[in-house]
Design brief:
Blueprint lengths: L18 H9 L6 E2 L11 H12 L12 H15 L9 E4 L1 H13 L5 E6 L4 H8 L3 E6 L9 H10 L6 E5 L11 H13 L3 E5 L22 E6 L12 E4 L2 H15 L4 H13 L3 H22 L12 E5 L8 H12 L1 E2 L1 E2 L10 E5 L4 H16 L2
Parallel strand pairs: 1-10, 3-4, 3-5, 5-6, 6-7
Antiparallel strand pairs: 2-8, 7-8, 9-12, 11-12
Length: 389
């Protein structure tokens, strides 16, 4: 008799757990390890946001809400994006509140993809994109950007489309990016937008790190091609609210209508008190993330300068809180083996670069969402490790 496990969805049979979480778990029991592994702010959620959630509970805000989210929150999202990035979305018809951007990614792909569709994904990037594409029976087409400063160029996109004979459904952009911290400029996005519009592609733009853009003002590709863009953003990084699970999908009204169907099937609606907490964050703490950003910049510079002194080259992070460093030539270029050696010998936890795709082979990702003291200790440990090997 055939085992039941052998009869599950074929798209899931070869799916694996998140390699970032797996590797973090593998090294987490090492004594005295300083982990720079996970992409989570080390700050607590601001007190005024926590107080708003408690008030919502006490006010019995504990019922099903509109699946798209409570209207005051959607209005606050609309105002926040207009004030910050000159993006204009109608609260009634163009916004869905989701259980984090993670749900937003899945809902969007489940809505637009048919089996066999091709989705172009710059590499290295957040691995969930390609996994969600595969779960929906489509093909993730990775484009190695390591030779282009970790930016998907218009020429590289055109070359990829030509190789696919024009048969592509969507392209995914993440700016500022995980794992590299690289942020696209307005000029780069505008040039890319022309190719996307010409080929009538969906553009899924994950901008969860938009408030953590350092050296330039954040720009969304939705400024140039709003009808092609499905914009994803949320509260996790800007307001240190990873565990509250509040994200947003924004786009053309007719497309948002369809995505909302998948959203309803998946979660019905986002937890009430989390929505009221997010509302407080956007209305009365729109610049909460800027206070955190000042500290991230200090940590970034300490870590990147220390790594460079130890022989690790990396692109200058324009946002987020990651350093994506090239393993020096004298070491094993197998990034998983190198990361294990660094963990066991130097007591420093990092994520192997190939976890983020082929474009990350030979690199390691370090998160500086950690205390300044720990960042300084890591720099000294890595310098000692390099000197002794």
């Amino acid at each position: 008799m055939t085992k039941l496990i052998d009869q599950i969805n074929n798209n899931l049979k070869n799916a694996k757990e998140n390699s970032i979480l797996q590797f973090n778990k593998e090294i987490s029991q090492i004594e005295d390890l300083i982990p720079l592994t996970l992409g989570e702010p080390d700050f607590n959620t601001p007190d005024h946001i926590k107080a708003a959630a408690i008030a919502a509970i006490n006010n019995n805000e504990s019922h099903y809400s509109n699946p798209r989210g409570i209207m005051p929150l959607r209005q606050a999202v609309s105002k926040f994006l207009a004030d910050k990035y000159d993006l204009h979305y109608d609260a009634e018809t163009q916004i869905i509140t989701t259980s984090g951007v993670t749900e937003g990614i899945y809902d969007t792909l489940a809505t637009i993809l048919n089996p066999g569709d091709n989705v172009i994904i710059p590499s290295p990037t957040f691995p969930m994109y390609q996994d969600d594409v595969a779960i929906n029976g489509a093909n993730a087409v990775a484009v190695d950007t390591s030779a282009d400063g970790f930016i998907l160029t218009p020429d590289k996109l055109e070359t990829t489309l030509t190789a696919l004979d024009g048969k592509a459904k969507a392209v995914i952009i993440n700016t500022p990016g995980n794992p590299t911290g690289v942020a696209y400029t307005a000029e780069q996005l505008e040039a890319l937008a022309k190719v996307i519009e010409q080929h009538n592609l969906f553009c899924i733009s994950d901008e969860i790190y938009s408030e953590l853009t350092y050296d330039q003002k954040h720009v969304s590709i939705a400024k140039f091609i709003p009808e092609n863009t499905i914009l994803l953003n949320g509260m996790s990084k800007s307001h240190a609210m990873t565990g509250w699970r509040v994200g947003f999908i924004l786009g053309p009204a007719d497309l948002i209508d369809r995505i909302n169907v998948v959203h309803q099937f998946a979660v019905t609606c986002v937890t009430d008190n989390s929505q009221f907490a997010a509302l407080e964050g956007l209305q009365n703490g729109p610049d909460d993330g800027l206070k955190m950003k000042e500290k991230y910049i200090v940590r970034r510079d300490i870590l990147r300068d220390g790594l460079q002194a130890a022989g690790f080259e990396s692109p200058q992070p324009g946002g987020a809180f990651y350093i994506f460093a090239k393993i020096p030539a004298q070491f094993n270029q197998d990034d998983f083996e190198f990361a294990r050696e660094l963990a066991f010998k130097a007591k420093v936890g990092v994520i192997p670069g190939s976890s983020f795709g082929k474009g990350g082979e030979g690199y390691i990702r370090l998160s500086y969402a950690a205390s300044k003291d720990n960042i300084e200790h890591v720099v000294e440990r890595i310098k000692t490790f390099v000197a002794n090997n």
